[in-house]
Write a structure and sequence with these properties.
Structural class: mainly alpha
Largest sheet: none
Protein name: TLC domain containing 3A
Helix content: over 70%
Organism: Gorilla gorilla gorilla (Western lowland gorilla)
Number of domains: 1
Strand content: under 5%
Distance between the termini: 16 Å
Number of helices: 2
Order of helices and strands: HH
Length: 69
């Protein structure tokens, strides 16, 4: 469990930093605020997709989601 937490704590800030860096290099005319805003939205979208995927996985793997463990 702690390994998963540590992985997430490194993955999402790393993805944000990578996206911000890549946008600043590929779009030099954009302001820092624009790059940060787009990076934030991208990381949020990735987080939403992963959360939805894990929810679908849990629902499909349990016969009774409410009482199943």
């Amino acid at each position: 469990m702690l390994l998963t937490l540590a992985g997430g704590a490194l993955f999402f800030p790393g993805l944000f930093a990578l996206c911000t860096w890549a946008l600043r290099r590929s779009q030099p005319g954009w302001s820092r605020t624009d790059c940060v805003m787009i990076s934030t939205r991208l990381v949020s979208s990735v987080h939403a997709v992963l959360a939805t995927g894990s929810g679908i996985f849990i629902i499909r793997s349990c016969d009774d989601v409410i009482t199943g463990s």
